[in-house]
Design brief:
The chain starts with a strand and ends in a 15-residue tail after the last strand. Helix 1 crosses helix 9 and helix 3 runs antiparallel to helix 4. Strand 11 and strand 12 form a beta hairpin. It is α+β, with helices and mostly antiparallel strands and 319 residues long. The chain is built from nine helices and 13 strands. It is globular, with a radius of gyration of 20 Å. The relative contact order is 0.15.
């Protein structure tokens, strides 16, 4: 007899390809899966394969109650967050409702990565390499980069080229982390999946070759044992679980430095899945208590994204 898996995507408006992969993984296991999307507007691309629920903003005081009502009304058994603001609330909900799975880290671990100063301290304590952090006690070497300590999506970032520019930011320095700006670096994205008991099941490094509108549209997986080793050390040191994306910089000397960690599925994870790091299957298998085995991706697999249209009538009905 087949089982039923009702999944709620939080902020996954554009994650049609990920949704298709999860549905296909469930079908191969004779699991009846259905996806719902929790969005501010019903007219989103995910409507191509999911039922869209009109939701609340993550910081809305009514959001927790509305999420609870949505989960119970639709019989949701899994929540997958795709945007930063939804990650901790999803983890908190799953912790209080063990019948609902959230394939990710705890709310405590997730929040740590949303405070760049706190996460830098954790990285330093674990001897994980990051760009040198400026604390005002020595003469700086420019350029520097200032990031809002609790910012996301590259908002509010400033490049500091000289002392005068640094002096202008110092009055609000407590709201920033200021680090060495690594010029001419190669950015490596590592898609990972770790089971609830800490077994690393997928580590797939890739490089974005082209982006459009903040989304990767050409991505290639790479052979980088060094990036894989650093990602595994990072997972072990920080307690990351479930799906996560580790952003690494490779400087011109070949040194690898952790830039940031997103404790959720990355927007370009499909590239890693195409290469063999089948994270959607791992998510379904862990939920279903099926045997888990590590997935090993192939390097040099190129994934190219293309546009696909979906239309809505004036009343919001999908055509």
């Amino acid at each position: 007899m087949s089982r039923s898996l009702n999944i709620l995507f939080l902020g996954g408006a554009k994650r049609v390809a990920v949704g298709r992969l999860i549905l296909a993984a469930a079908q191969r296991r004779d699991i009846k899966a259905r996806i719902y999307g929790y969005e501010l507007d019903r007219r989103v691309p995910l409507a191509a394969l999911a039922t869209i629920v009109e939701g609340k903003r993550w910081n809305d005081p009514d959001f927790p109650a509305h999420l609870d009502d949505t989960v119970k009304r639709l019989g949701i058994t899994m929540i997958i967050p795709f945007v930063d603001g939804a990650i901790a609330p999803a983890a908190e909900y799953a912790a209080k409702h063990p019948e609902v799975c959230c394939p990710g880290s705890s709310a405590e671990v997730s929040r740590m990565f949303f405070d760049k100063c706190q996460s830098a301290e954790v990285f330093a304590a674990a001897s994980l390499p990051i760009p040198a952090t400026y604390d005002g006690t020595y003469a700086p070497t420019f350029p520097l980069i200032a990031k809002p300590r609790k910012g996301s999506a590259s908002k509010g970032i400033q490049i500091i080229g000289n002392q005068a520019e640094l002096d202008r930011i110092n009055p609000v320095a407590d709201n920033y982390i200021i680090q060495r700006y690594v010029t001419d670096a190669t950015e490596i994205t590592v898609d990972c999946y770790t089971s609830a008991d800490g077994e690393i099941l997928a580590v797939s490094p890739r490089i974005r070759l082209e982006t459009a509108g903040g989304e990767a549209v050409r991505t290639v997986t790479i052979d980088s044992p060094e990036a894989i080793e650093l990602a595994e050390r990072t997972i072990a040191a920080t307690g990351l679980r479930g799906a996560c994306t580790i952003q690494i910089l490779r400087d011109t000397d070949g040194q690898l430095l952790i830039m940031e960690i997103n404790p959720r599925l990355g927007g370009g994870v499909v590239a890693s899945v195409n290469a063999g790091a089948d994270i959607p299957s791992l998510i379904v298998d862990e939920w279903a208590s099926l045997p888990l085995a590590r997935k090993y991706p192939l390097p040099d697999v190129l994934t190219v994204r293309y546009l696909e249209d979906i239309a809505f009538l004036p009343d919001g009905t999908k055509i």
